[in-house]
From TrEMBL:
Protein name (database record): Secreted protein
Domain of life: Bacteria
Organism lineage: Bacteria, Bacillati, Actinomycetota, Actinomycetes, Frankiales
Leader peptide range in chain numbering: 1-42
Source species of the chain: Frankia canadensis
Protein keywords: Signal
Length: 189
């Protein structure tokens, strides 16, 4: 964890931003860059080999996540089907530290222009909505969406316990009837 020194009362303030705030913004911008690559130490698994069926009541089960995991080749999410959302359950054995993130990596194409949008649940409650997800790549050719687990907008870091990552197709069928296939990326520190 980065510890910022206490700001002396004579330290300059840039507009309304302190040096600490500017440093935090720079750190978050660097994290967006990091999220576009597969962590070098990541364990990889195939989506087709996971237990569960990806539904809300029987999510794909990832177990306790420590370190980095990439779930490869998850099937596209399709409009009008029961598969416009997939659910993945996992547990954290300790509180997530800064730079921990989860999300989906994908490549948009001519016929698959709808993104894979992550949101984090704990039971029936949404902990982090898909609107908080960061985009990677540049529009219209985005390459992923990620949720940062620490620090949370509500304050603090994501605590140990059981969670469900829901990934969904949010765009209307008129724009694209399917997302691309995707990789699920979890990096827990």
């Amino acid at each position: 964890m980065i510890r910022m020194p206490a700001r002396p009362s004579s330290a300059p303030v840039v507009g309304r931003l302190t040096r600490g705030t500017v440093a935090l913004v720079a750190l978050l911008a660097a994290l967006v860059t990091v999220a576009t690559t597969t962590p070098a130490d990541a364990a990889t698994r195939s989506c087709s080999g996971l237990s569960g069926d990806g539904s809300y009541s029987h999510p794909y089960r990832l177990g306790t996540v420590r370190g980095s995991i990439v779930i490869r080749r998850c099937p596209p999410l399709i409009s009008g089907a029961g598969y416009n959302t997939a659910y993945f359950s996992f547990a954290l054995s300790s509180t997530a530290r800064p730079t921990s993130y989860i999300g989906a990596r994908f490549t948009l194409g001519r016929n698959t222009r709808s993104a894979v949008n992550p949101r984090l649940l704990r039971g029936a409650l949404t902990v982090i909505p898909s609107s908080a997800a960061e985009w990677t790549g540049s529009g219209p050719n985005y390459t992923g969406r990620y949720l940062y687990l620490a620090p949370l907008a509500s304050g603090g870091n994501l605590r140990a316990g059981g969670y469900t990552l829901a990934v969904g197709k949010l765009d209307s069928p008129l724009r694209s009837t399917s997302t691309p296939s995707y990789d699920l990326v979890l990096k827990i520190r």
